[in-house]
Amino acid sequence: INKVFFKLFRDKPEAVDFFLKYIRDSSEGYKHLILFKPVFEFCAQTKGQDNREELMGLYIQAVLSAKTAPPSAAVEAFLPLVKSLSAEEFMEKIFPVVVKMMKRSPEAVAGSAVALFSSQTAHDMSKCIPEILPSLLQLIRNAEEARRDSAASIITSLAKQCSNFDTIESAVDAIQAILKGSEGRLAQVHQRLGMMQSLSCLCAVPGRGKAVSRVAAKAAEVVATFYKSE
């Protein structure tokens, strides 16, 4: 099916414009995004073209900036675009929106962010962690398990793509500070376990040597202190 659509779009570029305009202007368009996946795949493969820019705008509007969590079909429809993002596109256009929405409405964007960060396997996330970690450490203490799981998935994805062990060490310090009460007493069990889970997620960072040993020693100290206090 995609081959048929791709031939149409190459022969008739105005067809792409027609579909994108329909999605953008129609109140029904966002409800059926998965039906337009061939359009998105075609635009994702044509980097530098105006249609790709418009598609990123639609992704931000329909998925990342949605007031409520978008349906999984909508998130899936944009996966071709998400997987093809360059480091510059991700850092300059997409990531700032995610940071803003994680502060404003984490429940709405968390599921979409899981798909986004798990797909960024070619980019270094070291610079992203300090900006978004505070919001994730809030979410991983949420009373709802699904939201805690979303936060854990994002932290794991970030750690897997982190090349800077100083960043991971700072994240461990932030977790330790919260456990010590920097943001108030963690009265509920799920809040304290959430912090332990975030620490476990950071262990996904790749690497070996002295830098890993230093961070591992600090993480072990945090865990030991936690169990003594419990």
Chain-wise SSE layout:
Layout lengths: L1 H10 L1 H13 L11 H8 L5 H15 L7 H6 L1 H5 L3 H18 L1 H13 L10 H11 L5 H16 L4 H15 L9 H14 L7 H20 L1
Helix pairs in contact: 1-2, 2-4, 7-8, 7-9, 8-10, 9-10, 9-11, 10-12, 11-12, 11-13
Describe this structure in words.
By secondary structure, the chain is an all-alpha fold. 71% of the residues lie in helices and 0% in strands. Helix 7 runs antiparallel to helix 8 and helix 10 (145-160) packs parallel to helix 12 (189-202).
List the defining traits of the structure above.
single chain; mainly alpha; 71% helix; 230 residues; elongated; 13 helices
Shape: elongated
Helix content: over 70%
Per DSSP, what share of the residues sits in E-state strands of 2 or more residues?
under 5%
> Strand tally, please?
0
Biggest sheet features: none
Radius of gyration: 20 Å
* N-to-C CA distance: 58 Å
H/E series, N to C? HHHHHHHHHHHHH
Number of helices: 13
Q: Helix/strand/pairing class, anyone?
A: mainly alpha
Chain-averaged pLDDT: 87
